[in-house]
């Protein structure tokens, strides 16, 4: 029997209904409600919404599929700033080598990513469809509706960036094939909409979300108006809509917190109570998978088989561009004996260094588990720093050099007290801002998307990437391989799509 990658799942509240697609998903949520009762009350609808957030960190079937965290690692592995030490272990390896996303039969990266975001879409659709019929206060309904709309818009945005060609503001309308737009709970297959149509729907969802949400929320694991404005800023940047990118980036960070101190910068990027985090997830230690998890792969101190032999490094050329006084330079080992004490690597249960582990220059300590005996840690999805970078980049790309330099200043001087207002202009200023962005957001899942949206080459040459490990050292901008292929299961099972709908 053919299995639809997402339409089969479109009828299931994945983390709430115990009967859903058990052959595809293996989840153990803390709160389950049946299909029959999911929308009989505001409380149950809230559980359904919480289930969507739990989707973000749930492991599906195997260690490759650790929710949004796994996708973040794969997307950075496809860039040039994340450097893999060796070929040991398969996790994220085919993404690093640029093969998984172009394999229509790949289940762990290509098909999983496609299904993952449509699972979020389908669950959001059920809330949006059913919320009006639930008895309860309108204010409660607005919050549930707004968050579901925001998550649906965000998921479509992730999908179109990967499976469609980049948005090009000089070529409107963007009629190149995008992804199916799914805005109902129907299981009927949908055709690929154009990239322009998908972005129109994304903005419509985010605008509707803003009509329903405020800055108020219970905790940072849920989106609020500030986070939605952050989504709007990201979307505008991808669309080269510079004015709206500036507008929403400024509004997103207003009242959302403040930049962290230099001391906080070295504390491990694993606590959602950091004042700079706008949105993230808390992965409880009792819900972390036995194997896998974001920190099992990305942390510098948790003793997993993967981290023992494969410390993650920064691109040597990028590292060289970080000024000595910048706190961010301390996130990566300079290779000296004097600095080695700051990079003990993975630790035994008694806190001593694990013997025999691989150690290499440029290895990181950005991500640290709070308890090195447990692979759990909070994961950042949006930070205030990103909003400063979006504003600065959008201003620079629209030719407003002095305003761009001023927008960059608060972040740059926070990270490096010796930094002074940039006097760069034009392409040099854009390059400075992009270097700041690459350093600041290293390991947070942005680099492949940034290369694609800016129509830049992937260039790993003359760096610490190893050809025998990386396989791919250069991909020119605009090459067909920048598009992820549509999973073959979807082509086969969706009656609105056929072989002719596959990407080249």
Automatic annotation (TrEMBL):
Pfam families given in the database record: SusD-like_3 (PF14322), SusD_RagB (PF07980)
Compartment(s) where it occurs, according to its Swiss-Prot or TrEMBL record: Cell outer membrane
Signal peptide: 1-23
Coiled coil: none
Source taxon at top rank: Bacteria
GO cellular component, one term: cell outer membrane
Keyword check for Kinase: no
Alphabetical UniProt keywords: Cell outer membrane, Membrane, Signal
Residues annotated as domain SusD-like N-terminal: 49-237
Domain RagB/SusD as annotated: residue spans: 349-498
Family membership noted in the UniProt record: Belongs to the SusD family.
Protein name in the entry: RagB/SusD family nutrient uptake outer membrane protein
Upper lineage: Bacteria, Pseudomonadati, Bacteroidota, Sphingobacteriia, Sphingobacteriales
């Amino acid at each position: 029997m053919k299995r639809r990658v997402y339409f089969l799942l479109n009828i299931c509240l994945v983390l709430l209904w115990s009967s859903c697609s058990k052959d595809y998903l293996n989840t153990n949520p803390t709160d389950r409600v049946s299909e029959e009762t999911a929308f009989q009350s505001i409380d149950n609808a809230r559980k359904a919404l919480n289930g969507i957030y739990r989707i973000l960190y749930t492991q599906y079937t195997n260690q490759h599929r650790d929710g949004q965290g796994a996708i973040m690692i794969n997307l950075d592995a496809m860039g040039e700033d994340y450097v893999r030490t060796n070929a040991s272990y398969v996790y994220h390896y085919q993404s690093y080598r640029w093969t998984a996303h172009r394999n229509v039969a790949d289940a762990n990266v290509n098909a999983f990513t496609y299904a993952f975001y449509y699972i979020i879409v389908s669950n959001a659709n059920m809330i949006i469809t059913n919320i009006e019929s639930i008895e309860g206060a309108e204010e409660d309904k607005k919050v549930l509706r707004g968050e579901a709309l925001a998550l649906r818009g965000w998921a479509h945005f992730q999908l179109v960036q990967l499976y469609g060609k980049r948005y090009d503001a000089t070529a409107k309308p963007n009629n190149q094939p995008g992804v199916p737009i799914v805005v109902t709970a129907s299981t009927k297959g949908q055709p690929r909409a154009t990239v322009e149509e998908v972005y129109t729907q994304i903005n419509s969802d985010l605008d509707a979300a803003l009509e329903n949400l405020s800055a108020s929320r219970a905790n940072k694991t849920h989106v609020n108006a500030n986070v939605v404005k952050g989504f709007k800023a990201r979307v505008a940047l991808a669309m080269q809509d510079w004015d709206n990118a500036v507008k929403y980036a400024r509004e997103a960070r207003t009242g959302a917190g403040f930049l962290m101190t230099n001391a906080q910068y070295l504390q491990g990027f694993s606590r959602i109570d950091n004042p700079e985090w706008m949105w993230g997830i808390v992965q409880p230690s009792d819900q972390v998978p036995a194997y896998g998890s974001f920190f099992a792969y990305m942390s510098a101190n948790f003793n997993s088989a993967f981290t023992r032999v494969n410390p993650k490094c920064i691109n040597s050329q990028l590292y060289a561009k970080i000024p000595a006084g910048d706190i961010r330079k301390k996130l990566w080992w300079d290779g000296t004996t004097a600095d080695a004490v700051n990079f003990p690597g993975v630790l035994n249960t008694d806190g001593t260094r694990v013997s025999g582990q691989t150690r290499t220059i440029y290895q990181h300590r950005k991500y640290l588990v709070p308890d090195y005996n447990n692979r759990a840690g909070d994961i950042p999805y949006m930070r205030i720093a990103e909003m400063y970078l979006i504003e600065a980049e959008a201003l620079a790309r629209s030719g407003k050099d002095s305003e761009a330099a001023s927008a960059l200043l608060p972040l740059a001087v926070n990270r490096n007290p010796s930094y002074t207002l940039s006097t760069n202009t034009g392409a040099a200023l854009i390059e400075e801002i992009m270097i700041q962005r690459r350093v600041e957001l290293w390991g947070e899942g942005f680099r492949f998307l940034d290369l694609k949206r800016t129509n830049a080459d992937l260039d790993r040459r003359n760096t610490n990437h190893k050809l025998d490990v990386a396989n791919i050292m250069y991909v020119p901008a605009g090459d067909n391989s920048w598009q992820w292929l549509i999973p073959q299961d979807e082509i086969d099972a969706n009656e609105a799509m056929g072989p002719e709908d596959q990407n080249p």
